[in-house]
Amino acid sequence: MNMVIHKQALGLLFSLLFASLVSISNAAEREAILVADLGPQIGDQVPEFRLPDQDGQIHSLDSIMGPNGAMLLFHRSADW
Question: pLDDT digit of tens for each residue in the chain (80 aa)?
Fold first, then answer.
């Protein structure tokens, strides 16, 4: 009985090791992503804008700016 448990544990260990090696080799093949090329970055100056919200009301940078600044969140919805 102990021998069966050990063989099963060893088989699981080899399976995990193989899966890890496959994952590492796949990660090495991926092209690096340059985050700076994806768009505005944290701390960048926001250009002036006028955009509608979900209710159709128009907002500008000045209209959302508070005493401590503003945080913009762009959420891509599945309902478009």
Answer: 444 555 666 676 667 776 766 666 555 677 888 888 887 787 888 888 898 988 999 999 899 889 998 887 777 777 65
Classify 53 as helix, strand or coil: coil
**Which of 24, 69, 28, 77 minimizes the C-alpha distance to 53?**
77
Locus of tokens 């544990």: 9
Whole-model pTM: value is: 0.40
Task: Sort strands 58-60 and 50-52 into parallel, antiparallel or unpaired.
Answer: antiparallel
**Whole-angstrom distance, CA of residue 53 vs CA of residue 64:** 12
